[in-house]
Amino acid sequence: MKFVSHQPLFNAACLALAGLTTPAVAQVEYELSFEPGAGGSWSVEASFPDSGGEVMDLWLARWTAGAYHLADFGRFVEMPSAQDAAGTKLPVERVSESHFRIAKGAAERVIVHYRAESISEGVFTRGVIDVESNRIAEDYAYVTPVSLFGFVPELVGEEVVLEVALPAGWRAATALEADEDGRFHAPSYYHFEDSPLLFSADLHTVRFEVDGKPHAVSVHGKGKEETAVIADGCRRIVEATSALMDGLPYSHYHFLFGFTPKSGGSGLEHSFSTLILLPSALDPARAGARALWGIVAHEFFHTWCAERIHVEGLHRPDYTKPFSTGTIWVNEGVTEYFAHHILLHAGLVDRDGFLRALAGSRLSAKGRATSWTDTSRAATHWTEGAGVMDFTSAMYGSGPKVILALDLEMRRITQGERGIVDLLHLLRHEYIDRDRGFPEGAMIGLINDVTEGDLTGFYESYIAGTDYPDLAAALEVIGYSRNRRKIVEVDEPSEDQLRARADFFSIPR
Fold it and tell me: By the 8 A CB rule, do 198 and 258 touch?
């Protein structure tokens, strides 16, 4: 997740679709329709195979991977109706805001109908972030599926098929694969809910390949020339990230952009795509587009850190109960830190701009009110108030600076040879390649494994503790010092400093 604005406001492989025209018996099927315009609502039909037993528990997600806080999307849904395949009505009980219980008896398929509000009217609406939810406007709409489509916990591993009835002349953009009839397919609910959809009559798409893998950039709210500029920046960011991380972890990827008057600047990560909402006034060809490239680099790097490198609880998330972890600093702080590296390697900022953004301002010597790990845990309960601002400041403000200090400390004790990028490569081999998440308390041990040293004191002071590191001292590791807000090279750097500097700024090979 990332938020940007005029002020610092602030988530598998391709599905083989050949011959997929006859529905599988066990698949979950959704039908979606809506009418454009303010005050519009979504109409959803969901068809579920037998989940076992005589009752079926239908849930709307209580939170979103990448946003983490309690959203309880069921509060935006009217009371559903249910029937069996023969049309016989089935009793439905509302157990809680996001939990419905259907007395299905011996029904082998349950068909549910409900209407849901269009949630988002701006960056925040009723305690929900725009990119984690959905919106219907006059000329566009979008939906992050976790906010709208109910699920049955026993069936989250079944194939999902979505049919969308679009207004005349509108098109859909999504990372989901489509069959010959225009229906979208996902191998499971987890893949489906992780795949936002953007709808518009004015949608421009540019395609490119990196490492032989197809990428698409779809834009609402800008013309063809501006879309080409955006696509070129995205391509450079993908290429730089591939070089840094030694390849790309997906089969295909889709950047979804909405430039609208109701957007302040926000994005949410997904495994095969990202949805980014930005203000209409932002011109991607002007110098002010630095905010655009920053959010693109951040959300794209999440394809590694958060989407595939994450704590165990995010590997197969349970959306029926609140989620809490002390590791969101890994997902957000590490990602924001590497977004700066990606922009540098992509040629979208120079070295001076890179250092100025990361280390040009001092961290307070007074420390923080809460640790980074406690701020991570508190994300479950933040709202539009102080909790959001505390989270934002920790993850996107001071967070990358703490990771910079950690990176440089790792390089200090390894004589410049290893840093945070080496930690990510270790995490890839140990966890992505083994299809699992890392244990809650594992991070400091993994850092020590990379360095073959002991950074427990750093971790306890600056991550699990409330102190701030000394950035000026950290910069000395790579032969730099700070002169007010300017970062300058020291006059006579040592061989160790030059070696550490070369490794710090290089693409690992």
Answer: yes
> Which of 382, 374, 264 minimizes the C-alpha distance to 322?
382
Domain 312-504 bears CATH identifier 3.30.70: no
Query: Model's pTM, two decimal places?
Result: 0.94
Please say if the pLDDT value at position 22 is more than 60: no
CB under 8 Å to 217, separation ≥6 — which residues? 205, 206, 207, 208, 227, 230, 231, 234, 254, 255, 257
**Degrees, nearest 5: CA angle 249-252-256:** 110
* 429 CB-near residues (< 8 Å, 6+ apart): none
Tell me the helices (H) and strands (E) count for the chain, helix number first.
14, 25
382 or 178, greater pLDDT: 178
The domain limits of the chain are: 2-286, 312-504
Report whether 251 contacts 15 (CB < 8 A): no
pLDDT of residue 221: 97
> What's the CA dihedral at 340, 345, 351, 357 to 10 degrees?
-10
Instruction: Give the C-alpha distances (Å, rounded to integers) separating 119 from 77, 116, 129, 452.
Output: 10, 8, 9, 49
CA distance 292 to 280: 12
For residues 462-483, average pLDDT: 93
pLDDT at 23 over 50: no
Rounded Cα gap, residues 108 and 93, in angstroms: 19
Q: What is the mean pLDDT of residues 188-207?
A: 98
Q: According to the model, what pLDDT value does residue 25 have?
A: 58
- Residues in CB range of 294: below 8 A, 6 or more apart: 2, 4, 339, 343
How buried is 486 (Cβ within 10 angstroms: 0-12 exposed, 13-18 middle, 19+ buried)?
exposed
CB atoms within 10 A of CB 68: 26
Q: Could you say which architecture CATH assigns to the domain 2-286?
A: Sandwich (2.60)
pLDDT for res 287:
64
pLDDT 10s digits, 129-176: 999 999 999 999 999 999 999 999 999 999 999 999 999 999 999 999
Q: What is the distance between the alpha carbons of residues 245 and 301, in angstroms, rounded to a whole number? A: 10
Q: How confident is the model at residue 288 (pLDDT cuts 50, 70, 90)?
A: low
In angstroms, rounded to a whole number, what is the distance separating the alpha carbons of residues 29 and 275? 23
Tokens of 297: 């680099």
**Burial class of 109 by CB neighbour count within 10 A (0 to 12, 13 to 18, 19+):** middle
Q: What φ, ψ does residue 25 adopt, rounded to 5°? A: -60, -40
Which pLDDT score is estimated for 487?
92
